[in-house]
Amino acid sequence: MALNYIFIFFFLASFVVALFKLLVWGDVEVFPAIVESTFDMAKTGFEISLGLTGVLTLWLGLMKVGEKGGIVRIMTRLIGPFFEKLFPELGRNHPATGSIMMNIAANMLGLDNAATPMGLKAMKEMQTTNLKKDTASNAQIMFLVLNTSGLTILPITVMVYRAQFGAADPSDIFIPILLATFFSTLAGLISVAIYQKINLFNKTILAYIGGFTAFVVGFIWFLSGQERETVTLISRVASNVILFSIMIIFILLALRKKVNIYESFIEGAKEGFAVAVKIIPYLVAILVAIGVFRSSGAMDLFVESIRMALLAVGVNTDFVDALPTALMKPLSGGGARGMMVETMKTFGADSFASKVACTVQGATDTTFYVLAVYFGSVGISKTRYAVVCGLIADFAGIIASILLAYLFFH
Measured at the alpha carbon of residue 44, what is the angle toward residues 40 and 46, in degrees to the nearest 5? Predict the structure, then answer.
């Protein structure tokens, strides 16, 4: 629903701005530019979708190998003790516990197709013990906020788009995204814990959060003392070592379980073409709307207004061209993806603005969409503080993405 209103707004706002430019400034080129952009962006959307086929096929194949090798179950065991403390009202043997763990683990690995069904199953299982059927329970809110915070260790989709636009090193945003999504998740978790009076100083919770936070802070402190070129080199080398190591781990796990690795890869890879074709209409629709918005001058008017306000208070504004992605992210995943793609098309995949937009895109999920799908699936209309905590996570992820982009790429 949010994307419907956004789509309409882009066209109407573009028409109003273009009409003003024509009647007041005498700009006779604005409407031809708008119409030309619709054809150009429709072509771009189609070409991007088809260009994604190869890389999507590769990664979906590898993900299927990892899935059959038991990587999701391993991650579930690793994070299980931590999540038991975050969902105290469920208890150890609640039927939803397994689905929650599997959903979070699948999300962390970027297994969207596997994560969503498990997430819906978890919501339904939690609803069976929810005393107020139209009101979100504490456990459901914690689960939803952890989903909207977008914790992931494999931002495959973002790297695929960067590869499609010819980035020199598509994976150089891997570590910035990993760090930004950590801060997003941490902010969401803490905000929910405050509402629910969960003791964050419990030794299990403190061990997980404290340990990882100490590592992240130490890593950022180390990088902050390095030269810009050294930071870039560390990011590029470490990102690719980690990614290839994950591929090897998937293969070794599958080998240990005597999985037919080649056939499993093919099974997953077959989904790549279907996924690429499926996104064509969605990507074309949002890219055309964004193209119209930019060609009319409405996008420039919006961005420059923010830039001038920030310059007035002495803030560096190199990140401002990525703000449309950041502002769209809580409202629409498709809209934010379109903004990210349009930023790369306009400024180049290796521009600072594009790297900020890509980091933002990978740092959080779409709060309103996730809440609508998950709460809607069990008939919950009273979401309590879920939206507030979800937006806190989004805001933390966006701020972290911008700051980390300056650390790694500026």
Answer: 120
Q: Which amino acid is at 155?
A: P
**What residues contact 230, with CB distance under 8 A and at least 6 apart?**
none
Query: pTM to 2 decimals?
Result: 0.77
* Strand partners of residue 382: 135
Burial state string for 82-97 with b = 16 or more CB within 10 A and e = fewer than 16: bbbbbbeebeeebebb
Q: Is 191 contained in some domain? A: yes
- For the chain, residues with pLDDT lower than 70 are 1-3, 52, 72, 92, 109-115, 117, 228, 239, 275
Tokens of 368: 């309103």
Closest CA to 323 of 288, 359, 287: 359
| Overall domain count for the chain | 1
- The burial class, CB within 10 Å (0-12 / 13-18 / 19+), for 379 is exposed
Residue in 267, 401, 263 with CA at minimum distance from that of residue 325: 401
Phi first, then psi, for residue 382 (nearest 5°) are: -100, 105
Calculate the alpha carbon distances from 284 to 54, 288, 329 in Å: 19, 6, 18
Give the whole-angstrom CA distance, residue 389 versus residue 98: 24
CA 271-357-312 angle, 5° bins: 165
Would residue 40 count as lying in a domain? no
In 109-173, where does DSSP find H-type helix? 112-127, 138-148, 156-164
pLDDT tens column, 40-83? 888 888 887 777 677 778 877 887 888 799 886 787 778 778 88
Sign (positive or negative) of CA dihedral 43, 45, 48, 50 = negative
Alpha carbon of 294 to those of 137, 166, 226: distances in Å? 42, 22, 38
Give the three-class secondary structure for 225.
Answer: coil
**Residue 39: inside a domain:** no
CA distance 217 to 88: 29
Does residue 24 lie in a domain region? Answer: no
Domain limits for position 322: 2-6+50-409
Q: Return all residues near 211 (Cβ < 8 A) that are at least 6 apart.
A: none
Q: Residue 132: what are its φ and ψ, rounded to 5°?
A: -110, 100
